[in-house]
User: Fold this.
Amino acid sequence: MLGNCARANDLSRELLMQIVRDNKDTEYGRLYHFDRIRSIDDYKRLVPFSTYDNYAPYIERMVDKGEKNLITVYPIVQYAETSGSIGVPKKIPVSKRTMEIYTKYTITRVTALADRWQRDHNHHKLPVGRGFNQLEIVDRTLPDGTPLGNISGSAAKSYKKLFPYYLTSPIPVLYPKGYIPMMYLKVRYALADRDTSFMFSVFMTNLVDMMNYIKNNWEWLVEDVRTGTFNKEVKIDEETKAELMKVTKPLPERADELEREFRKGFDDPVIPRIWPKMSFISTIGTGGFAAYTRAMRSFSSSVPIDFQVYGASESMMATCTLIEEPEFALLCDSCFFEFLPADAPEGCTETLNIDQLEVGKEYEIIITNLSGFYRYRIKDVIRALGYEGGSPKITFSYRKSQLLDLAGDKITESMMDEAIRRTGEELGVNIIDYCVYPNRDDSPSHYEFLIEPEQPLDPSPEKCAEYLRILEKHLGEVNPVYKECVDTNEITHAVLYVQQMQTHALWRDIKVHKGTSLNQVKPSACWTPR
Assistant:
């Protein structure tokens, strides 16, 4: 079944032709004869696929020597530093046009959708109130003054003048001058504000970590709200503390309210009890984050969730069009998109356009962005779900670099996530995180699973063998080739270990303490090959 995507395809072609025309005199454009390109077919014929390695020498010259017109004529306003989850962190150029796209489809979009949700479901407009924002906005620059950091935090700067009215965190917390206890301070001020009406974070993991932090430390957090001070065990530099004290006051009545609710426990969802105006949660919570979304529901109950966007440092590629709908519509004003069937033979370069996707099929997504990357293999595989308003609707399936394959079994991240979900469901626990290690040193080779439950599980060898039997049963259901490989002894049965609760949260804390932005710390989920 093919969708009708004529207008979106026209817009996509127009964007590509504009990018090609504008950049024909760049060094990259001259190399691949952009001046000869008159159609999509010309573009595909003259310009090869690319990866970051193709741009690294140009980016090095841009960063170190300030050279321009190498890969793009569009002004570069920032370099987005990737998390480095695979290899060395990369510096991705971000043009002004790309930054505008990020701003348009994040805060602006979700506010409009949340207002629509409230009017449709609760018959009133979005409540007035400030929100909790987990983003870190770090002002780092390159020697020439160009900002360096994660793009999500920088996009939020467009609203800097509104921050005192829009966010619960004071300016010294949003723009720290040095190291500060970010989790403590953001939670402490959010708890003080009874009218907190939304939560915003890049990843669901960060919000679950925040709620567990409250659960484990509520007594002294409440005391700090009561007295208008800061816990002595928390180290805050004196300059920052002095600035914060100017905007911090004792709130004994609010503290009493918080204490009453916390003493009732956390078995019943606590968020609506401590923040009665909470109207939406906006964060990436699908795919490898799904277990954290289930954990968040235990805190948030029916507070609607916006699953935000599908994007990367290279580009915003798709966005949710409805709250509570974990499906994404491609953004035809953001990139020119091509699609390579996931089952295409190695070396295939025959790509499809956005009007040629078949519903239910998986495709590697290839982008030409507004910041100087052309026919760029971002190494993501998506599944086509249908069309909306002329634009394809998709969901993320897996990263090609995270495909597990010991003997032709080809286990994708989505397969592993589903097997883990079913296993947790059968065991009656939420398996909130996991890691997989492909052990090729032993013969036959096998996988080693490390699972972290949200509730206690017996870690004894006997019980781990039982958990493994259940996990391998479900993995064989979602990937019959895995079962066949085990049955024929091409690979042997896996090994499973139960990790202590909060292991992955501790790992994230360590990453942050070592300098990784909280906005870039993803679950270790998925595979050690990351």
About this structure: Residues 8 and 391 are 6 Å apart (CA to CA).
